[in-house]
Write a sequence for this structure.
């Protein structure tokens, strides 16, 4: 995001970071909500677990957006958001799959 | 100011963070700024939704206060009006809404119909068809463009994205404005130009920051089942996908599946007409349990075990939304259960919801929250204008250009049309409410046509004259319109100031008086715009201050 | 709400006057970096913070609202509203700000006293 770069590169960087922030951040927030729901459901009632997880997911989203524009390179921005999102999503699906087979 | 002046290698990590947040702040605000402004303004008006609903139905003027028999009488009136009623939801009168409002459906097409009843006689009230205050309310969360409702889910998604951007803009704004505490009280309108706009934006942004954070966060949470359903999907797996209904049941303190079990009997064509219900003993019991708390509404529906009555407490009685409900067996009158979820997360959600709706607020608090809404609208508007002013200042510094470049012309025009035009559109819908024939078919949609036409007209004016004259034309017309509204009201209805002031009917008089005060404010603003046709020359700041006066928000594109 | 507002207004006024820019506008010509004035500004800042804490604890302990949560909400509303008022004062009547702040403090104390007596 340096103005010294050629314009098209700058625009590409901004667009990709915006995508990481918007879509990637949402994926991370949603995955964290799912995992946190499943984690909390053991100790709280389901509805309390869902609500706690959903309340917190917006803060995750906001942090992900901030990271997407703060990270030094676009690659770091993308990986920093998408890797945890994938890990959490895998965790959520794995958990449900285990729960269904158990 | 521009990023190119900063050294290519970031001096400190903190500086880099602030630069990134500043960039994010500017663009997240700008991208949907006009939409956010419209959402904020119509949402602010929605604090007085009930009052707009009333003002736009002048036929309801002069209704007496309800007595303790209102519910029983309204039920009889409803049954006389519709003997086949199978389900109804009755909202009891309070000082803000003097009529009984009943939503009911019968054995016919299964659709709900609305009925308004006299609080003392139960007589059916005939008021003009109007979009009412519901329009502002619906517009502010789903961009309602037609009375019957179309594209509402799409509208909610767009509003959700805008809300998220505002949430991000607020958080990054705090980071961006490094002097947020140093400049806390600093507003220098006499300096004019960019300095004054930046001050205005900062001050209006920071002073009511708790309100803005609350309103955006709760806005996201209210529709969390649409915007962020991942938690529900994980917690409520059902036979076919997600059992969202079970979630909503438990959210309201009910047993999962309770609602759908009842719904299959209440709404279908085989539903039995309801017998007359003895409401008085249940209301008495509710008053006992709630220790004198007000009853807000009563709903009755059939179930396999006979009719079920739900008495809902008035939503103004506490911070947390929704209000507690008591469920009774309609045939025996015995109390079945109380629905009042109290888990910490649900309570947090309920308080956020309640704060957003502000149903708990008395008149003073309501006006204060309205004021914060106005301040928030000004924060958004000043941010948008600031972007324009800053751009202009930069381009003038580079070269003395005759006329504005296309993009600045466009932004300036959109500022006038979309932000300045909104008061004009609001005036237009209020005029339409009084001037359209009372029996016009599809009258609410005709009112909306006036609203959107006036907005479109203002946009045209803005795009043609993207200067002060454009602002003055749009705001001046709106100002005259608001100033003359009480006069129009006096000419077309009996609910005017001449009648409402002597009778101390503040709900009615307050609307007319507020319209004229707002009109005067707009006219004052217009005079200000016309008298100072050229921007003030910036006073030379003293050296010690000029460093402090350098805007910290960076601008780049 | 009124007591909250008055005490918060006094607090914000003290905090505003603790800043060099507003101190100089209230008492023109004073050298805000000189040691005695710098100490006075520090005291003003401390007073402001203490007053804010005091008003919050009063709002939460004295029962004027149906619930403590509502009292907290009303206090936050009063906090923002009085900040707007204090900013308006330092914009349009900076020289009167010390007097306005003291007046609000006195009025707040009186309204507390009246509430205690009632």
């Amino acid at each position: 995001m340096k103005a010294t770069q050629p314009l098209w590169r700058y625009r590409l960087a901004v667009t990709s970071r915006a995508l990481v922030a918007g879509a990637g951040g949402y994926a991370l927030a949603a995955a964290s909500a799912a995992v946190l729901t499943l984690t909390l459901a053991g100790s709280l009632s389901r509805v309390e677990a869902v609500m706690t997880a959903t309340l917190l997911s917006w803060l995750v989203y906001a942090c992900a957006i901030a990271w997407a524009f703060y990270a030094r390179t676009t690659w770091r921005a993308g990986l920093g958001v998408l890797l945890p999102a994938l890990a959490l999503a895998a965790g959520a699906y794995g958990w449900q799959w285990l729960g269904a087979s158990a | 100011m521009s990023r190119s002046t900063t050294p290519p290698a970031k001096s400190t990590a903190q500086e880099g963070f602030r630069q990134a947040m500043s960039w994010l702040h500017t663009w997240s605000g700008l991208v949907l700024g006009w939409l956010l402004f419209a959402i904020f303004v119509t949402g602010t008006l929605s604090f007085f939704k009930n009052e707009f609903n009333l003002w736009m139905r002048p036929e309801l003027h002069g209704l007496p206060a309800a007595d303790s028999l209102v519910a029983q009488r309204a039920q009889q009136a409803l049954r006389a009006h519709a003997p086949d009623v199978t389900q109804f939801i009755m909202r009891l009168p309070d000082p803000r809404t003097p009529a009984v409002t009943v939503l009911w459906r019968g054995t016919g097409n299964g659709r709900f119909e609305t009925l308004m009843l006299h609080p003392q006689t139960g007589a059916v009230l005939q008021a003009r068809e109007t979009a009412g205050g519901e329009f502002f309310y619906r517009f502010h969360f789903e961009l309602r463009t037609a009375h019957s409702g179309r594209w509402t889910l799409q509208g909610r998604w767009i509003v959700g994205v805008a809300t998220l951007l505002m949430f991000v803009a607020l958080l990054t704004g705090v980071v961006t404005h490094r002097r947020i505490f140093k400049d806390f009280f600093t507003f220098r309108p006499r300096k004019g130009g960019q300095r004054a706009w930046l001050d205005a934006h900062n001050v209006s942004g920071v002073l009511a920051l708790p309100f803005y954070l609350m309103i955006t966060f709760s806005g996201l949470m209210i529709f969390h089942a649409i915007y962020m359903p991942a938690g529900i999907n994980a917690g409520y797996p059902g036979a076919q996908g997600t059992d969202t209904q079970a979630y909503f049941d438990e959210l309201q303190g009910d047993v999962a599946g309770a609602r759908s079990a009842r719904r299959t009997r209440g709404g279908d064509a085989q539903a039995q007409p309801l017998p007359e219900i003895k409401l008085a003993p249940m209301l008495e019991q509710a008053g006992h349990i709630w220790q004198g708390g007000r009853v807000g509404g009563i709903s009755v529906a059939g179930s396999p075990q006979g009719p079920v009555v739900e008495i809902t407490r008035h939503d103004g009685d506490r911070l947390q939304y929704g209000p507690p409900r008591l469920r009774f067996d309609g045939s025996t009158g015995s109390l079945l259960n109380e629905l009042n979820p109290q888990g910490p997360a649900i309570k947090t959600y309920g308080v956020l919801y309640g704060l957003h709706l502000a149903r708990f607020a008395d008149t003073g608090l309501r006006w204060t929250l309205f004021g914060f809404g106005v301040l928030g609208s000004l924060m958004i508007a000043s941010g948008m204008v600031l972007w324009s002013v800053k751009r202009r200042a930069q381009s003038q510094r580079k070269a003395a250009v005759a006329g504005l470049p296309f993009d600045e012309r466009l932004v300036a025009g959109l500022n006038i049309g979309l932000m300045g035009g909104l008061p004009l559109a609001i005036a237009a819908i209020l005029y339409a409410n009084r001037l359209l024939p009372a029996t016009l078919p599809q009258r609410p949609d005709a009112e909306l046509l006036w609203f959107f036409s006036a907005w479109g007209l203002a946009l045209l004016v803005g795009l043609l004259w993207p200067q002060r004259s454009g602002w003055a034309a749009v705001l001046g017309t709106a100002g005259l319109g608001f100033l003359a509204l009480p006069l129009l009201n006096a000419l077309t209805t009996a609910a005017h100031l001449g009648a409402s002031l002597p009778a101390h009917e503040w709900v009615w008089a307050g609307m007319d008086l507020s319209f004229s005060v707002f009109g005067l404010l707009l006219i004052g603003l217009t005079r200000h715009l016309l008298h100072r046709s050229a921007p003030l020359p910036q006073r030379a700041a003293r050296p010690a201050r000029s460093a402090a006066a350098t805007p910290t928000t960076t601008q780049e594109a | 709400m009124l007591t909250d507002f008055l005490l918060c207004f006094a607090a914000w006024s003290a905090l505003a006057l603790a800043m060099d820019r507003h101190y100089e506008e209230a008492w023109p010509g004073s050298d805000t970096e000189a040691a005695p004035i710098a100490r006075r500004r520090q005291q003003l800042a401390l007073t402001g913070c203490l007053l804010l804490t005091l008003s919050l604890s009063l709002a939460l302990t004295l029962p004027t609202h149906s619930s403590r949560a509502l009292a907290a909400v009303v206090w936050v509303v009063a906090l923002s509203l009085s900040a707007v008022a204090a900013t308006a004062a330092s914009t349009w009547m900076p020289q009167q700000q010390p007097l306005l702040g003291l007046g609000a403090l006195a009025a707040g104390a009186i309204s507390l006293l009246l509430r205690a007596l009632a």
